[in-house]
Design goal:
Layout (H helix, E strand, L loop, with lengths): L12 H25 L2 H4 L7 E2 L2 E2 H36 L11
Antiparallel strand pairs: 1-2
């Protein structure tokens, strides 16, 4: 059985495929951003004799970039899972908010 879309209509297989394709595109874009941010030309910007709260700038920048990438990854994945949970909720309530299915 196909999940409901935002209007409570059944989502077509093409719509589900497009959602999965969009998720894959976002993950590939995040991977590309990570490769660029954690590679030589941009990392050379942080290789200075400076400190941030007593921590040398280079390791602090590496950690912050890494943590930012993980946070964005979590946001992308959780957003997709939340959309799936909303679809399951609408399916169980018959597309109506707050009313049980089968009434």
């Amino acid at each position: 059985m196909a999940p409901d879309d935002a209007a409570g209509n059944r989502a077509s297989p093409e719509r589900r495929w497009m959602g999965k394709e969009l998720l894959e595109q976002r993950l590939v874009a995040l991977f590309g951003a990570g490769c660029v941010l954690l590679n030589f030309p941009l990392l050379a910007l942080w290789d200075r004799d400076a400190t941030v709260s007593g921590v040398p700038l280079f390791p602090a920048a590496l950690f912050l970039i890494w943590a930012g990438l993980i946070a964005i990854l979590g946001w992308i994945v959780e957003r997709e899972e939340d959309a799936g949970a909303d679809d399951r909720h609408r399916k169980s309530t018959g597309g109506r908010s707050g009313e049980p299915a089968g009434d």
